[in-house]
Every structure is written in C-alpha cells, then in structure tokens.
Specification:
Elements (H helix, E strand, L loop, with lengths): L1 E4 L4 H11 L6 E4 L13 H19 L3 E11 L4 E10 L6 E4 L4 E2 L1 H8 L4 H9 L9 H6 L6 H19 L2
Parallel strand pairs: 1-2, 1-3
Antiparallel strand pairs: 3-4, 4-5, 4-6
Helix pairs in contact: 1-6, 3-4
Catalytic activity: XTP + H2O = XDP + phosphate + H(+); ITP + H2O = IDP + phosphate + H(+)
Subunit structure: Homodimer.
Protein name: Probable inosine/xanthosine triphosphatase
C-alpha cells in the first residue's frame, strides 16, 4: 500500500507515519501539494477543505492508495482566537474521512496579527524570537508550555483518521 502525505513538514510527516504504522503496513511518501485554500486558513471550513484538498492532491500526485492531508488554521470566536486543525484521508472511494483535533485559545495579540494578514508561523517566530516554530513545537507547544507539541497534536488527529478508515473497511 502506498500512503501519500500531502506535505513536506516534518512534524506532520512524523505524525502520520507514527500513527499509521501501528495499524497498516505501507510505503509512506511525502509530497508538497497545494491545499487550494489560503496560506493561512481563518475558519474551520477553510481549514477542513485545505486538509481534504491536500489528501486528494497527494493521492493523485503519487498515484497512491491513500492520501492524507493535515491543515492548521485559526478561528475567531466571541471568546477569542482558537487554534484549529483538521485532517483528511482519501482512498479509492474518493469519499474523504475527516477529523478535527485539539483546540486552545491563543492571545489576542497573536490572533489579531494573523487576521490582519500574517501567517501564524511567522507571527509565532517573532513572538517567541525563534526560527521555524511551525516545523517544531508549533503554537500549541508554546501555549501549552511544551506539554503538547505539534507532532503529538497531529498524531492524535492521524489516529482518528486511520481508526475511521479501518472501521469503514472492516
């Protein structure tokens, strides 16, 4: 089985391979594909669509049995700004299996900058004076004091995807 992961981001690749290898055997290929949404999704709908598009585009690009897409975004609510993340798995049926992940509130000063047009990764780099937070602990790692990092967050999401897939194909 060939499993195409729609990203070159190491945290997302590790998350998918860690979660899936416990339940399926296959060759994992990471491929840089478009999400066909904005670089910084600003709603659940856009973030979910980005994950679905990445899964479909990865599967098609690699002629894989399964395509997996993971996408992070930000949602503005009456309470404040929340990180959101969505994942999708697409197989031969082309009907996506979709799951949403953890959410935490982030400071308004971060959310305001993102909703003004900056990408969360760039804002986080500046906020914590580090480079490439998005490919390491992520905003979730910063705002959970390192208790949950981006790989863990996306691993849980990936487990939800493979679990649904296995249930559907039992």
């Amino acid at each position: 089985m060939i499993i195409a992961i729609g990203t070159k981001n190491p945290t997302k690749i590790n998350a998918v391979t860690n979660a899936f290898t416990q339940y399926v055997k296959g060759e994992f290929i990471s491929v840089n594909v478009s999400s066909n949404v904005s670089d910084q999704p600003l709603s659940d709908e856009e973030t979910m669509l980005g994950a679905i598009n990445r899964a479909r585009n990865a599967r098609e690009a690699e002629k894989a049995n399964i395509g997996v897409g993971l996408e992070g975004g930000l949602v503005k609510t009456e309470i404040g700004y929340f990180l959101c993340n969505w994942g999708a798995l697409v197989d031969d049926s082309l009907q996506p299996v979709v799951a949403g992940g953890a959410r935490i509130i982030i400071p308004n000063e971060i959310g305001d900058q993102v909703f003004a047009g900056q990408e969360l990764g760039d804002v986080m780099d500046s906020y914590v004076k580090k480079h490439n937070v998005r490919q390491n602990e992520g905003a979730i790692g910063i705002f959970t004091n390192g208790l949950v990092d981006r790989t863990q967050m996306f691993s849980e999401l990936s487990t939800l995807l493979i679990g649904q897939y296995l249930y559907k194909n039992r």
